[in-house]
Amino acid sequence: MWLALPLSPAAISSDALEVMHTGIASSGLPDQRYGFGWFDGTLGGARVVSHTGSTTDMASMAVLVPSSDLGVVILMNGTSTLYETLHKPDTIGLAATALLLGQDPPGTIELLYPAFTGLAAIVIALIGFGIGRLVRRPIAVASSAGTPATSAEPRWRRAARYAYRGYVDVVVPIAIVLLVPAYFATDWSVMARIDIGQVLLAIAALRVLDGVVRVGRLGIARHRRPKTTAAALAAT
């Protein structure tokens, strides 16, 4: 019923429908203009009128073909920021409309999601692999003479290393938790249900884990460091 209303003169006058559906402003695409809430364009030579809408966790699209009394609606109760950015719901709606018109459907960027999932898996696996190597690495402690077990590191280099680790293991996770939801105009109750939110949460958790492991290793090294006593100093 809802889809039939924009096609039905019984619900609204033909003149009003024509005004609503006729594009008068440029939409930025060569074969599409914007009317009153509707995009006026073509699909395989057929005139189509369409409108899309989305938030962080839903998306929808309505496509009307006035010459064929045909309408297609796509409703999604879950979506992805990548899908929204690249207009994935739009491509699905237009592909379904093309099929109903007997046309070859345009592409729906079907490889987007597997590609993103694969890339996210590689990034998370690399971070996890690095943490695993860190856990297995022997902990260097000072020798009994009080000198480091390894060659002395320049002070500036050590400061730079600590600053970098503080950034990636403290600042980055905090920024993800506090700033990402605001950037997408939502909260973590929604972000945790979509792909980008889940990937960013995993990265933040792994970065925090990396920092905890490094602080723990530093504490163990300090605990194992031999204590130089006065008697030992006198003996030398």
Please describe what this structure looks like.
There is one protein chain. The protein has 236 residues and is an alpha+beta fold. The chain has two domains: 5-100, no CATH class; 112-235, no CATH class. It is 51% helix and 15% strand. It has eight helices and six strands. It has helices spanning 14-21, 81-85, 88-100, 112-136, 155-183, 188-191, 195-224, 230-235; strands at 25-26, 32-34, 39-43, 46-55, 58-65, 70-76. Strands 1-2-3-4-5-6 form a six-stranded antiparallel sheet, covered by helices on one side. The longest helix is centred in the last third of the chain and has 30 residues, at 195-224. The radius of gyration is 30 Å and the shape is elongated. The N and C termini lie far apart (96 Å). The relative contact order is 0.09. Mean pLDDT is 81; it is low at 229-233.
Structural class by secondary-structure content:
alpha+beta
Integer tally of domains = 2
N-to-C CA distance: 96 Å
Helical percentage: 40-55%
Order of helices and strands: HEEEEEEHHHHHHH
Low-confidence stretches: 229-233
Counted by DSSP, the helix tally is 8
Strand order of the largest sheet: 1-2-3-4-5-6
Annotation, overall tally of beta strands: 6
Radius of gyration, whole Å:
30 Å
Mean pLDDT: 81
Major sheet:
6 strands, antiparallel
Q: What sort of overall outline do the alpha carbons produce when their principal axes are compared?
A: elongated
Report the portion of residues in β strands: 5-15%
